[in-house]
């Protein structure tokens, strides 16, 4: 095993970065290997409630793998992921799915909306999957579509809306279930810069109001500028740049 950059973790408790509401999600010493490729090599990470953390770094450095391990989508080979007092890394597939449905929201580069459903039905889908009735789920989803300024396209299907509108619908969908953590992997990657900035404004505002934490994978510094803190992943290790800067 390679030595881990623990600088960030060593300072995070005392500085209480972000809302100060305490660590919500934490990873320690994550290792993940695909064949002969080392995707994560002892990565540490932590995020507080209400905090927006940008995960940056070169292509292939392990950013998405880190996000997938944090979200319980991919189990790490070793290391731990702790959400509140639960060990995500030792949960069964079914437990991890339940956690993702109940507590996490997801936004990806290409919204990944279900093409057969309307924008409203898409935004309501996580709540439906979590057991809400159609009426309640759609009422909750409509509120978020209004908030994301795409209520007017709620009866359209994803193929009938622009990329920016589709991405806003995807964000509404991620937020509608009142997630405690939103995982956003290059959420503005497919958008022009104006749309990208508006999407980031809406995402971060909404997250701050609901005290959701946002793990934001991006390679764009103008997107990372919306975060409270930046973590750089390089060669499968994560370094907290804000903490490092503060320590100088
Ligand atoms: N499912 C997989 N199977 C095989 N190799 C994988 C898989 N997922 C990731 N990798 C490899 O692991 C390494 C890290 O990938 P990852 O997608 O986490 O990087 P990234 O920093 O998100 O890259 P990018 O910025 O290009 O999206 C890469 O070398 C990648 O090819």
Automatic annotation (TrEMBL):
Keywords recorded for this protein, A-Z: ATP-binding, Nucleotide-binding, Transport
Pfam families assigned: ABC_tran
ABC transporter domain boundaries: 25-248
SUPFAM superfamilies attached to this UniProt entry: P-loop containing nucleoside triphosphate hydrolases (SSF52540)
Entry annotated with the keyword Membrane: no
PANTHER family: ABC TRANSPORTER RELATED, IMPORT ATP-BINDING PROTEIN
Protein's organism: Streptomyces iconiensis
Protein name as catalogued: ABC transporter ATP-binding protein
One MF annotation (Gene Ontology) recorded for this entry: ATP binding
